[in-house]
Write a structure and sequence with these properties.
Blueprint lengths: L7 H6 L9 E6 L6 H13 L5 E6 L14 E7 L3 H11 L11 E6 L5 H6 L2 E4 L5 H8 L10
Parallel strand pairs: 1-2, 1-3, 3-4, 4-5
């Protein structure tokens, strides 16, 4: 159920630095909500800042098999139109190491009618749409004056 995938853009960077030297971003959420597209946009944004990273996507935590890669940030992705999505992420948050609680995890919400989840768990909240690439890029690279709401 939880299968790691590395984005093609991240694979292209692997010749420059070893996996231990690159930043690792884990995206957790149900299948079919745009995790790969978000991962690709993050990799593209990181390239513009000379940051090398790998993005891995999983449908839930805990992982069924040991994961030996470096993870620097965890993104929980919720589709508020899906109860399964909300329940899967809520269950996964409990398996996250407490070192990720402050500043190393983010909550990305699509179809965001109910927003109190971020307040309950004290995570960052990013507003975005996955319907077009320009909107997705602005979600990944928010404006300076309004860093949490795009």
């Amino acid at each position: 159920m939880a299968e790691a995938t590395t984005t093609p853009a991240a694979s292209a960077l692997s010749a420059v630095r070893t996996p231990e030297e690159r930043l690792g971003v884990m995206i957790v959420g149900i299948d079919g909500i745009g995790k790969k597209e978000l991962g690709d946009a993050i990799v593209d944004a990181a390239k513009t800042r000379d940051i090398e990273l790998d993005v891995f996507t999983f449908s839930s935590l805990p992982l069924q098999e040991p994961f030996a890669r470096r993870v620097d940030h965890v993104i929980f992705m919720i589709d508020m139109a899906s109860k399964l999505s909300l329940h899967r992420v809520a269950a996964s948050v409990g398996h996250l190491d407490c070192n990720f609680a402050l500043g190393r995890s983010t909550l990305v919400v699509i179809n965001y009618e109910a927003l109190n989840f971020a307040d309950i768990y004290g995570t960052a909240l990013v507003y975005c749409t996955l319907e077009d690439n320009d909107a997705l890029r602005s979600c990944v690279l928010p404006k300076q004056h309004d860093a949490h709401k795009v």
